Amino acid sequence: MSDCLFCRIVAREIPSTKVFEDERIYAFEDILPQAPTHVLVVPKKHYVNVHDASEDAGLLGELVTRSAAIAREKGAPDFRLVTNSGVLGGQAVFHLHFHVLGGRQMRWPPG
What we know:
alpha+beta
């Protein structure tokens, strides 16, 4: 999708600080980090949200597994993994993505 921010990042049309990349996943540093470790993990294929990707359980598993590996590599073995789905769920960029947040005490409610 030419107007999708994360598709443009994956396509290298918009610069990012790459953390990880393989055939199906791209991970990069969040430009407005909410924790010392804040990485976004996205599928290269455009899915709007977790509902849209639900037919590809393998990809969803890869996203979660890669997110955990990134947290460990970044020195955050205890971390929060978040995905927002839909407007009421707080989704702001409509390309499926997981936030890997760590490096500080995470509180509930977030903030």
